[in-house]
Amino acid sequence: MSNRLEAAEQYNRALKLGQKSYKECVLRGRYPYPQVLDDILDDAMLVGRVELGVLEIPTEQIVGTKTRGRRLAFADNFMPLMEPDSEFAFKWMELCAAHLGDEGIREPIRCYEYMGRFYVQEGNKRVSVLKSYDAPTVPGYVIRLVPAWSEEPAIRAYYEFMESYQLAGLYHLRFTRPGSFAKLQAALGFEPDHLWTAEERQRFISGFTYFQAAFRKLGGESLPVTAADALLVWLKVYPFETLKTTMAPELAKTLSTVWADVKMVAQDDPISVKTDDVQEEGEKEKGLWGRLVQAVFPARLNVAFINERSPEGSDWTRAHDLGRQYLEAVMGEQVTLQSFDHAVPGENAEELMEEAIDNGAQLLISTTPPLIDPCRRIAVRHPNVKILNCSAAMPYTGVRTYYSRIYEGKFITGAIAGAMSKSGWIGYVASSPIFGVPASINAFALGARMTNPRARIKLAWSCVEEDPFAALREAGMDLISNRDIPTPDRVREPWGLCRLGTDGGLEPLASPYWHWGRFYEKMVRSILSGGWDALNAADGGRAVNYWWGMRSGAVGVLLGQHLPGGVGELADILRRGVADGTIDPFHQQICSQDGAVRSDGARYFSPEEILHMDWLCDSVDGAIPSFEEILPMARTLVRLQGVHRDSIPPEKEGTLL
Fold first, then answer.
1. Distance between start and end Cα atoms, the chain
2. 200 with 252: CB under 8 angstroms?
3. How far is it, in rounded angstroms, from Cα 449 to Cα 586?
4. Per-residue pLDDT tens digits for 539-550
5. Which helix (H) or strand (E) holds 113?
6. pTM value?
7. Which of 3, 5, 2, 78 has its CA nearest to residue 35?
C-alpha cells in the first residue's frame, strides 16, 4: 500500500513539473510536447537501419516519440500532463509502484535512435516514471536510423560518432565538431583504434557523470555545445583522473575557469584577429571603461619573458631578446623586466612561469607556440596575470597570441626577385605549412608576377628536405628566397632573397625581418593606458590574436647594398604603400593551382582568410606537404600551428583510465 501512496505523490510531483515545462514552452514559443520522429523524418533522408539490441540509454537523450499517439499526454520533458483521476494517471502510478517494489521496471522500452537522440515507440510511461526519479539510464531495444551522408557539420559529426561507438560503445559521448573523439582518445592516453574494455567504459561513465552535473550547474544546457565538448576543453588543463576525487563545488569551480573557452567551441569565428596598432585600437575602444582602468592601473609594469631556448643557442630567441632589450631602452622607467630561458613544456615551463609571478610579473610573454599549454594552465591559476604567446589562431581566451604579417615583406622581396630574374624561375624555401606561410608564398609569387608576368616560383620545404636550398641551387635557380633574417643586425648568407653568382658566391638582395621590440613597446603602453582591458570588455569574449605588419613597425624589409638603384626605389615605394595601406598584396586577380578564381581583383581578403590560406597561386610549382611528409623535428609545430592541423591525428598524451 505504501508504494501506491508514494506513487500517487510522485505523480503529483511529476504533473507539476510537466505543467511548468508546458507553460514555459508556450511562453517562449516552443513546441510543448515530446518531439515526434515521424514528423521530422522521412525515409528519403535515410540510408539504412541498424538493430543495436538492448542498451542502457542515457535518459537525457530520450527526447520524443516515434508516432503522434499519446504525445498530448506528456510535456516536452516527458512529465505527465493528464489529471490524477485519468486512466493514464492510474497506469502511470501502477508502473511507478512497480518501480518502487522489489521487481522494479525491467522490461526494456523499444525506440529508434536518430542523430544521437532517442524516440520511444513502446514504453512512454516507463520513460516518464524513470525520468521523474532522475534515473541516469533506461534499458531499451534500439534501432538506429542512419542519415544520408553530407558535408553538413552535424552529419559529419554523427558519422564520426558511429565510428566511435564501435570503439567506446557509449551514447554519452555527443560532440558537435568532427575530430573530437580522436582527441578524446588521445587525451585519455589511448591509441586511435583502442577498443574500450567494460571496465574502462564504466570508469569513464562514472567520472563523466560528475562532469555532466558540473556542466549543467553552470548552465551548459543553454549552450549550443555538449558536455563532451566541454570535457575536451577541460582536459587541456586538468587530468581526467581528478573527476572522481574532486568534490562537486570544486569541480564546478575548475570548469568555470575554462568556461569562456567552452562557450567558444560552437562559434564560427572564436578568434578576433587584430591587425591594427593596438594603441590606436585601444584608444578607439577604451571609452569610459578604459579611463576607469587607467585611473587605477599602476604606472609601472612587471614583464617576464619565457623562452624555450637561450639567445645564444637560438636566432629566434635572440630576436625576441633584442625586443626585450629594446623595450628596456625605450621604457626603462615604466617596466621591470625578467627573463627565463630553457622553459621546457611538460617539464619546467610552468614552474618558471610561477617563479616569474612570485617575482611580481603582471605580464608573461612566452615566445614560442609549444609554450601555449603551460600558459593556459597558468592562466587558469592566475586569471589576473596577462599572458601572451607567440603563435597564431589559438582559440583560448585566457592567453592572447601574437605574430607578424611577414607576408607583406615577402610581397616586396617577390617584386625584387621578379625584376631581377633572368630566367623567370625563382626558388623559394618555405619553412613549415603553418598559419601564414602559404600567404607568404602567395604574396611573394604575386609580387614577382607584378614585375615579371612570366615569373614562376619553384617551391621547396625545409620541413621536408634536409637542405632545400641546395636542391633549388642544383635545379638551376639563380635567385632563391631563403629563410628570413631574424633581426636586421644578423645578416649572413644565405638568409633572405639571394642571387647566386656563376662563381658559386651568394649575394643577399633583401629580406623581411621581425622587430619584436616595436610590438612589445606598443603592447606595454596599451596595457598601461587601459587598452588591454578595454579590448577585453569590447570583444565579446572571443580569443584575441594580434597579427601586426609593416604599419606598426613590427615587420620591416632590409635591402641589400648591391641592389640596383631602380629596383631599390621600387622596393621603397612598395614598402611605403604597404605600410600606409594604399597597396594590398592580395588586391588583384588571383587563381589557385586548381584553376579556381580566388579573387577577381575587386575583392579584399579578410585577415582571417589570409591567415588561414591553405592553397597556392597558379604561378607556384610545388605543393603543401602532408603531415606524413614532414620531418619529425618539425611535427610538433605543425600539430600546433599547421593549416591542416584539425585533420592531423592527435598524439596520445594523457593518463590511462
1. 45
2. no
3. 12
4. 667 899 999 999
5. strand 109-114
6. 0.85
7. 78
